[in-house]
Amino acid sequence: MTPHSGEVTLDYLWMLRPKAQLSSVLEITPQWLEARGIKGLLLDLDNTLVPYKFKGEPPEELIAWVKSLEAAGIRVFLVSNARRKRLKAWSAKLGVEGIGLAGKPWFGIRKGLKQLGLPPSQVAMVGDQVFTDVLGGNLAGAYTILVTPISQNELDYTRLVRRLERLILKL
Ligand SMILES: [Mg+2]
């Protein structure tokens, strides 16, 4: 079938589409990953694991989740656009290595893949934003998981991006 002349093609939208959408990272279990051939996770920090700007202690469920993944042999690494200082603090609290100012969607994910030492086909990028986490993960050839953002306490810019994301996901 040939497209009608002048028809707008939406073929590029695959880049912005997550392979899976979940309400929380806690839904990602070793069994869920095994069923999809995933052996490593690249994790966004803000609004994926903890609320944006949150500086307190991580909830016990989150620590237990990280430990359950590691016990099952799943490799995890943080890839965040947050400042390096914030990333470092959360890396210590969660016991997970990572990089800040990662430059998602363009640079950080490839660095993360290198750290995991796994091919992109065995890695999932997990995050709450389509234009950084999902786009970056898809461009790198990884599986992509979009989670519901934890906090509504966000910058105006992010609010604008959310509106665009809702539009994209409806297409
Ligand atoms: Mg985020």
TrEMBL record:
Gene3D superfamilies: HAD superfamily/HAD-like (3.40.50.1000)
InterPro entries reported in the protein's UniProt record: HAD-like_sf (IPR036412), HAD-SF_hydro_IIIA (IPR006549), HAD_sf (IPR023214), PGPP1/Gep4 (IPR010021)
Lineage: superkingdom: Bacteria
GO molecular-function terms, A-Z: phosphatidylglycerophosphatase activity
CDD domains: HAD_BsYqeG-like
GO terms under cellular component: cytoplasm
Name of the featured protein: HAD phosphatase, family IIIA
